Amino acid sequence: MGYNICKECGMLFMQIEMHNFICPSCQKKEIEEISKVTEFLRNNPRSTGTAISLSTGISTEKIKKWIIEEKISINGNLGLASCKICKKPVLNGKLCEQCKSKFLMEYNNAGIKDAEEDAQDRKGSMHFIGKRSSL
Ligand SMILES: [Zn+2]
Ligand SMILES: [Zn+2]
Predict the structure, then answer these.
(1) For residue 76, how far is its CA from the centre of ligand 2 (angstroms)?
(2) Closest-CA residue to 2 (of 28, 18, 25, 10)
(3) Same domain as 71, residue 23
(4) Roughly what angle, to the nearest 10 degrees, separates helices 24-43 and 49-56?
(5) Ligand nearest to the CA of residue 4, numbered in listed order
(6) Which residues, at least 6 apart from 55, have a Cβ–Cβ distance to it below 8 Å?
(7) Same structural domain, 71 and 129
(8) CA 49 to mean position of chain CA atoms
(9) pLDDT single digits (tens) 5-38
């Protein structure tokens, strides 16, 4: 817990949650805006991000952020890149955070497995050499 600068309005505020980067009043505003977008989407389910932005007055940047945070889902992805594995929208890069960490974990595990197999191979050939030399 500590003080943080709000990413929206630049005000100093007491940070209570680790992943909270906006002040309580902006947070309240954001919740209101999200419900406005959700309401709009309920009435106009096939709307694109641009249409939502024009009708609600909320910037497409914010809509993008909410798509990534999975607070809303819309038709199209506002030019966001999509994760190469799960197709979830991502701001940058080729993989979303979840797939990236999963990929890295599998990659690391594969590395360890390879090293183990290598060691086994070496043991095997050593055994073979030993057997041959005893002949
Ligand atoms: Zn704020
Ligand atoms: Zn993914």
Answers:
(1) 17
(2) 18
(3) yes
(4) 110
(5) 1
(6) 40, 44, 47
(7) no
(8) 19
(9) 998 899 999 887 777 788 999 999 999 999 999 9
Distance 92 CA to ligand 2 centre (A): 12
Nearest ligand for residue 88 CA: 2
Q: Looking at the structure, tell me whether residues 73 and 131 fall in a common domain.
A: no
Determine the distance separating the centroid of ligand 2 and the alpha carbon of 30, expressed in angstroms: 25
Residue 88's closest CA among 64, 110, 105, 112? 64
Ligand nearest the Cα of residue 5 is 1
Q: Show the domain range for 63.
A: 1-79
For residues 118 and 68, membership in a common domain is answered with: no
- In angstroms, the Cα distances linking 106 to 2, 66, 84, 100 are 36, 29, 16, 10
Total of domains in the chain: 2
* Ligand 1 centre distance from Cα of residue 125 (Å): 66
> pTM value?
0.65
Same domain flag for 3 and 60: yes
- Sign of the dihedral defined by the CA atoms of residues 29, 31, 35, 40, in that order: positive
The pLDDT score that the predictor gives to residue 122 is 66
Q: Which ligand is closest to the CA of 99, given by its number?
A: 2
Report which bound ligand comes closest to the CA of 70. 2
